[in-house]
Amino acid sequence: MRKIWMLLLTLILAVGLVTGCTAEVAATDVEAVENEIVNIYTDRHYDSDDALYELFTEETGIKVNVVKGKSDELIERLKNEGEDTEADMIVLADVGRLQRSKDLDLLQSAESTIIDENVPENLRDDENYWVALTKRARVLVYSKDRVDSSELSSYQALTEEKWNGKILVRTSDNIYNQSLVSSFVELYGQEATEDWISGLVANFAREPKGNDRDQAKAIAAGEGDIAIMNTYYLGLMLNSSDSEEVKVAESVGVFFPNQDVDGTHVNVSGAGVVKYADHVDNAVKLIEFLTSESAQRSYSEANYEYPVNPMVEPSELLKSWGTFKEQPIKMSSIGKNVEDVLKIMIQNGWK
Amino acid sequence: MTELSGRRKNHNILPLITLAIFLLPIFTIIFSMDASGSENWIFFKNHLLPESFYNTIYLTFMASALAGLLGFLSAYLVNFFEYPLSRFFKWSFVLPMAVPPYIAGYVYAGMLGYTGNVQIMARQILGYSIPYQYLDIMNLNGAVLIYGFMLYPYVYLIVRSYLNGSATQWVESSRVLGLGMGETLRRVILPLSRPSIVMGTGMVMMEVISDYGLVKYFGIRTLGTDIFSLWFGSGDLSAATRVSLILLVLVISLLLLDTLLKGKKKYHLNVSKSNPIRKMKLKGIAKWSAFTFSIVVMSIGFVIPVAQLIESGTKSIGRVDLSALGQMIMNTFKASSIALVIIVLVTFFLARYSAREKGVVARIVDQGVKLGYSIPGAVIGVGVMILFIGLDRSLAPLYQWLSLNKSLVISSSLFVLYFAYASRFLLLGYNSFYSGFMKHGSGYFDSARTLGMGRFKASIKVDVPMQRMAFISASILIVIDIMKELPLTLMLRPFNYETLATKTFEYANDERLQEAAVPALIILSISVVGILVLSNIQKRRK
Amino acid sequence: MYLNLKDIQFSYDNAQNVVLSNFSVSIDQGEIVSVVGNSGSGKSTLLRIISGLEDRSTGQIELDGDVLQSSKVFVQPEKRKIGFVFQDYALYPFLNVRQNIEFGIKKLPPKERKRRIEETLSLVKINELEKRFPHELSGGQMQRVALARALAPKPRVLLMDEPFSNLDTDLVGELRLELRSLLKKEGMTVILVTHNQDDAGFMADRIIKI
Question: Best interface-test mutation with A: which of B234, B489, B495 has the largest number of A CBs within 10 A?
Fold first, then answer.
């Protein structure tokens, strides 16, 4: 019996070593061309992003290795790996997460005059720990049949009596909502924000659920009249292969709120160079490339996001929705509050 | 007189050590918990925990009750009656197993949503918009329905194989004692099936507790999703660990409940020949209700989701990178074969041990193996990661001495993922082998021993060949489950590593349900083939 | 005659494999008949046909003036009032001895039911075993319980399938005599199937070979 167990343990060990080593061989293959690679962790899962990386490899000869995951998981992974990480660059959705990565000491400053030229200051971290790659506006989407755009004005006006049972939005654990609320805390203070949340919750058409697209569909279904959602989802729906989604998207209008006051809430997806990166130069080069005019055009045209590079015009579709004024705050200041925001939201009834 | 006997050996330690190795990720999580409740935890406990706890319990019990009902009824019908297509249903009732609940969730939410086929048809044909409330499936009861209809085959399979194998005489004797089929169902078949129903619903419970994909997509807060949001959303490992512990306690109580409900007595009949039961031909209303029940269960559980996936898949296939899919299939098979080797080696001996020894240690092994399968994959994933990074850190001097110029040798390799799979799916191998050993008893092994073979030789010569079928079914189950696995793979995969499940999840998560249909369909087809082979094996065994 | 079987024909799904062909027999009330034959000769199938557990046979069966089976009629097993002692006894593992015996007479009023249980318990001499579960019984005890359970509803005919095959040989001699006198005392009509000529000779008033 003992022999069996010993054999067993030896076998497990052997299997472990064999698999471990094959993985090791694969890794050293990559290692051999060390200067030619950049490893990134990314929360952007779009095929158009992969195309951009290929283009980058073509132009520079630097191979891009990608791990895709959700932002929060990637941050946790980076945290655990510490200085042993293989990641050189991390791409995250939402400024709150970019800021958290910086606070957790996971990033380093990426100094590059090209990046400084490509991206305006308010879309970068003060110390260049992270750089925005794309912008998304969180707008009001309304039923063209039941709502006249003249009735709409601001996020704050959504708490008015007449919208009772009309407002649609996803759950509070969604980071886009958290950032929106965070910008409120920054602009108007916590008390005003809490009042706004409880007023908004009182007007909800249903318990928050589903994703951004579902909010637009709920408008088409007549469940509510106004949804808070990101612009690029509507762009994706308008260009969907599903003709019914297109119909839904065509039945709703886009309204940029708070134009008469301060501006519409804008969020970003962005990248940062990992603190313990082995290929810092390549990572910086990749960020330079991704903020360059050609890459920025691709983001806007393939994925309907707003470019961060002021030299690039938004795609035709985005332009058709009109231009707008953004909230007058620094991205980094939104990121600071995110930790407490979820609590405020839940305490005031936003599920 | 010559001394024949050697020393008496104590073989209780090695099984425990082996088991412990695979439970290490769970221990890691328990021990990395710190005592002070953080601010996050207190907030969470007061505001969110009650709802999550309620949802988890509600989903677990309601879903397993529904699955138990559907599974028992379907097994009962095909085992005792003949009605239109009953032979077809007999094998096709297992098919919903091939549809992971999260995929079913995407499909049904899509179908019943405003832009889904159901509402489109209503609008176009009836010229009428169905009020959204009636079609809303993205809620607790919707999740119960999906779990119930996708997971009932766990109950069906166990109950059917039990009824088919040993219930014949008991049922027949009830008939000649003057009980009709209805009364026989209540007084004989139900009590006889109780242990198998409990076992099957127990597996459903574990599946429900472990699931992350469906509840996440439906926006239902459960203890499982809380672990994710506390850990990753708030970066609060200690709060997440506390929730994991609550879940752990819940799972262990369910396992205990399971043992309790199964009762002490093992209903084993030593039948010299077990006649297949004479099936009764149903007539009239009974016939058509049985038929309708079967059609409805099959349609909801399999036909409708598959048809919908095929429709979406053909629409979107042009936008999916097909060559990448080939690589994903390869990845899946490589990962499953390696995990399989580990699982088979370990569970063959663990099962053999606990089937033959029956002591306290055997009981510990028995329950321990179940743990990995009941703990949500995400929890094991993080446990594994902490564990191996720690191991790499302590091995750093060795790596330096070997002049490897990296420090995360093990934790950045695929081995971590394989190990995680193995500790998560140990139970699948264990169950197959355990029932194999229970079935054959130790007679063959003992007779080989009396023929002069040592323990080791007897085991290789006798036990291994006798477990051939158990090995095949274990392999199929493991490959299917690894192919569907989501949270572990998402967390632990290295650079450029995709599986069909991660791709499906990615597409669905990016709100691209049509594209998600393509990898989902591949998962489904492979699972269907595996499941059919599996039920064929079980038939041949009879 | 009490029990009449006429032209019983039986084959499994494939028509080649004919197990019984044109089998006819008549049995008197109170008669004990042994059916003897090699394995595969269809003797167990015969019992299943008589009890109604096998519905693929043709031919006519009459019991005490009732037609149980003909080309037009098929009476379900639960309506035939025929007792059956299975080869493996088929005692319910989740019921104790008393509950097993009670199983077939649940429809009797409680008082009568209780009396009938006591009667059968003492008839087969297992009063002291009533609280035990089947897995706590020996082979001989299990057989007695199975017999008691089959007799409790007062069946019109008792069918026994290889009643001694699972018992120790030294027990069988004594048991055969006891069983025969017990069945005679009850005036039971019995068809007993066995492959053992000795058993058949000791037990039966008449032996039928098939």
Answer: B495
